[in-house]
User: What shape does this take?
Amino acid sequence: DTEVTQTPKHLVMGMTNKKSLKCEQHMGHRAMYWYKQKAKKPPELMFVYSYEKLSINESVPSRFSPECPNSSLLNLHLHALQPEDSALYLCASSQDPRETGELFFGEGSRLTVL
Amino acid sequence: AQKVTQAQTEISVVEKEDVTLDCVYETRDTTYYLFWYKQPPSGELVFLIRRNSFDEQNEISGRYSWNFQKSTSSFNFTITASQVVDSAVYFCALRMDSSYKLIFGSGTRLLVRP
Assistant: This one.
């Protein structure tokens, strides 16, 4: 079983909806990440949180809004999305953002925008 | 610029065959880290191995083995006596020292037929 838990596993939303993706880890990791993966493509980095502060935003449109309420939780708020935003959204964590150890990934939230 | 190339888009083998997945990387940095991840249909990326640029020792873990050669900038992955459960997409990835970003290859889809 993965130690990074993502909810919901599947989400269908209209372009005017507001929804959120949630991610939780209890490994004591201090870096958390959001990745976006389109079909048959590798994951692409969206955001990095280091010690609950946003460290990297890979020029992601403002309709995606990340939030890190505490060291165990990471949210991705979605608003006014486009059909091309349909993808698998993967959350990951790593022990220390200054280290280059492995990332632990969740199973992802599969988003469909109608 | 940093880049990871996985030239094999898809490989199909019969169970019990050995199979090698190729990975070639590009970087001018002297300190970097290489990874292999497995992505089964469930979506989660499962960490398999991490290697740093100063450790060219090959590694074996059960049926899995990795061959790291800096001279050819390659980090190939061999599965011995493949099994149906090995069917997945396999990603090779590169990370620079003190960088948050994992640079993924395009992935190789492995299908192991009974």
Observations:
- Residues 9 and 108 of chain B are 5 Å apart (CA to CA).
